Amino acid sequence: MKAGVVGAGLMGAEIALVFALAGHEVLLHDRSEATLACAIDRLRGILDKGVSRQFHTPETASAALARIRPVSTLDAMADCAMVTEAVFESIDAKAAVLRALDTACRPGCILASNTSTLPISTLAAVMAPDRRARFLGTHYFSPVSRMKLVEVIPGFATDAAVADEVTTVLASIGKQPVRIKDVAGFAVNRMLHALLIEAVKLVEEGVATPADLDAACRLGLGHPVGPFAMMDIVTSDLCLQVQEILHDAYGERFRPPALLKQRVAAGLGGGKGRAGWIEATQNGQEGM
After folding, report:
1. pTM here?
2. Of 15, 67, 244, 284, which shows the fewest CB atoms inside 10 Å?
3. In the CATH hierarchy, which fold is given to the domain comprising 2-179?
4. What is the CATH number of domain 189-279?
5. What pLDDT score does 129 carry?
6. Catalytic member of 14, 59, 85, 151
7. Which is catalytic among the residues 114, 116, 121, 236?
8. Residue 275 to residues 91, 209, 236: CA-CA distances in angstroms?
9. 118 near 91, Cβ under 8 Å?
C-alpha cells in the first residue's frame, strides 16, 4: 500500500515511520524543505536507537528510510491508498489541507485526520459529500514510534467498512486501535486533561509541588510519566489549546487553570529549548 502523511512535525514524521517499518511506501509532505530534511534526520536517529526491534522482522535505518519519500506538493498524493493529515491542531489549518487532499487524491483514497480534539464530522464538512464516507479520525499518541494506541473515530458519514479497513491496517503496522465515538476530545484527551487541570490546580493551591505530584502519579498510580513532565514534553501551549477546545465543548469542568495560562503567556511552556514546569521546580519557582 502506498500511504501519505501531510505534516512532517513530531507526530507526522513518526506516523510515516511506522508505516515504512511495516513495509509500506510512504510519501511525507511538508511545505518546508528544511522541515522535511530535519524530519528524515530525526527518524534516522530514532531508528539508530533500535525502535525497529519492536517489529517482527529486523529493519535497518536505510531500508525503512528508503521507503519514505519527502514531497513538497499535495498533488504527489494522487495515487495513495490512504493519506493521514497531521498538521497543527487548528480547524482552519486542517480544513485547508483536507480540502486540498479532497481535490488531489483519487476517489478511492481513504483520508484520515490525526486531530486530538476536533470532531471528525466537523472536519468532514469541508470536503465534498462523496468523500466523507472515506474520511475518519486516527488519533496517534506521542511518541508514535513507541506508543501502540490509536483512537479510531468514524464521523457521522464514515462508511463502516472503511473504519474496519483502517482498523485492520493499523493493527498490521503494530498499533492497537480502539473505536471511539465522534465527540470533542474523543476519550483519552478528556481523561488526560481532567487530570492535568486538577494537577495544576493543586499547585495553584499550594498543596504540592510539580515534582512531588509527578512522583505521586508515577509511584501511586503507576503512570510512566507524571503530568508536569508530560506537559513539558508536549508543551503547555498545546495543553492550553486543547483545554480551550474542551472548555468550549463541555463548559466549566475543562476551564484552563489561570496558572497554566500565565505560564504559557510568560514563555514557560516547555518543549525544545524552553523552560517548563520541571526546570521551574528545580529553580524554586514552581508557583510562577
Report:
1. 0.89
2. 284
3. Rossmann fold (3.40.50)
4. 1.10.1040.10
5. 97
6. 151
7. 116
8. 28, 16, 11
9. yes
